[in-house]
Amino acid sequence: MKMNKFVKTIIGYERMKVQDFYTEEEPYRGEMVFVAQVELYKSETYRCPVCGRKCVSYGYQRNRVKRWRALDLGSHRFYLECEAPRCKCPEHGVKAVKIPWAFPDSDYTYAFEMQVAYCAANEPTNLVARKYRIKWGTVGNCVGRVQDNVPPLQPQSFKNLKRIAIDETSYQKGYKYITTVMNLDNGEIIWAADGFGDEVLREFFEQLTDEERAGIEQVAADGARWITRQVEAFCPNAVRCVDPFHVVGWATGALDNARKRIAADTKKNGLPC
After folding, report:
1. What angle do CA 48, 140, 251 make, to 5 degrees?
2. Left if phi > 0, otherwise alpha if psi is -120 to 50, otherwise beta: which for 30?
3. Which residues of 114-133 are buried (b: 16+ CB within 10 A; e: fewer)?
4. Number of folded domains that form the chain
5. Is the domain of 144 the same as that of 156?
6. CATH number at residue 242
7. What range does the domain containing 211 cover?
8. Global pTM?
9. Please, which pLDDT band fits residue 217 given cuts at 50, 70 and 90?
10. What is the mean pLDDT of residues 7-13?
């Protein structure tokens, strides 16, 4: 496979030309990264990011080059580099041009942010940040952009539900929360909404029919009482389960507290450690 076709395939966009593909060492991290320099076809340049209309260029256009982080190639970071000038739309005014592989005002590709958002719904934020080598706050930003730009899932995802998992996670430095519901039989996120608590989760169960609610057999979640209240109210046949992640966390915390108490008592009574 030629390099031009290879880059187009992994980015998922065809209407561009790959000018160069090389490796370089990042000055701050000292890591080797892949960089693909691309150029949009003329028919795709100077389009408004809001309406997609072909517009005229605006302002000084030279050296307006930007990089977008894509999914890693092996163990190395991969960046897409392209000119990102401004255009003037008759309806929306001066904007940075539309970039077909990224959400507006983002430094990451669609695929990267979708992957981060999916993992954030299933794993703690600090683990996601470490896995994708990004900052803790960037995880929340990725979740927010995906939530703003990706249409909600369709109700057919609610069919044949047997085992589900419910959890809430924070983003934007912990100031905002999102509640997610997963189908444990296929690993699919079937529902998500801003916030957490009784009212938010009630919205999910009210979208299900009586037969769908009765068909749910197991519900895995943490120890939140608001989840327990809604499961008891809407799923009469479901067994409330606690997920292993929180069980291990609670056990570890209890052992740590016991260790600290014993160490303090030992020191207080002058006993040997």
Report:
1. 165
2. left
3. bbbbbbbbbbebeebbeebe
4. 3
5. no
6. 3.30.420.10
7. 152-247
8. 0.59
9. very high
10. 89
